[in-house]
Design goal:
Length: 341
Amino acid sequence: MLKARSTIISRRTLLLIAFILSFSIFAASCGSSSQKGTSQTVAPQVSVNQNKDVQLSFSESLGFGGVESEVPAATFTSGDGTQKSGINLTDQRKIIMEGNVSIETKDFDASIKALDQLIEDVGGFAESRTVRGTGIRSRSLRDANFVIRVPSEKFNYVMNGMGSVGTVLEANSRGTDITDQYMDYEARVKALKIQEETLLELMEKSTKLEDVIALESRISEVRYEIEKIENNLKNYDRLIAYSRISVYIQEVDDTTETEPVAKTLNERITNAFNMSIKEFRRNLENFLVWLAASWISLIFLLIITIVLLIIIRKSKVKRPSAPSQKEPEVKAEKKEEDGKN
């Protein structure tokens, strides 16, 4: 009897191990297919070095619809609390403008072409571009990161024109006022040039060799400082003349849509009902895609399950009936009664 029980237990153990192995194979296949899905990335944020004196910044979330939204021009708040327009401000002060735009699109290639055309129209250029997501075996959703340079006078025009590239999810701009640093550099260059002229005059009047050598060394140091500051000024001029805009483009199946905020109970119920229908449709589509990708694994798992059920049924039919414990007791009682008689 113990051997029969051990045989049954070993069979059950083998069946359980086979079922666990088949289920792990199925789970691994499902996991590999799910990794092929799309992944959403977050648009990178633009960081700008803030100046200690004056910081110009504004950020506005644009509508999710396809309508082109305007990005407001930067404003400057003076010490008395009055505001001045960004156009007049950029003419008077030295401001480095930077922007960041996040876009969704259903036609990725058309959006890339539209962005290239917009850059070409304003006389800008792409400082860098990165496109990800294309594959040979599977076509996954793509995304792209652009860093573009546009003339500063066309900055607002380009920001407003991003609606022609795709659905603008977010657009923000920031301006850094470097007027004080720029003027300080100019004053230092002017003072160093005056010092250079003075040193040259002294060297012409000097008759001692030691004085000439010392003056030449000092003149070299002054000229090096002048060249260094002038290079910084040229770099500032380039940053001011060409504004930097980071553009993130993401390919989607359906563009994001915003719905008005529900105020009444009927509106809230209607919005909830519409959202439930959309969610059900999305889940059904995802299930059909998963089913199409996993049908081989499902059939394999079904076959293993059927085989396991057949083996279990056969083991139950062939299992020998264990003798009951009551029969020996009954026989013993009968023997005792016969002995008494």
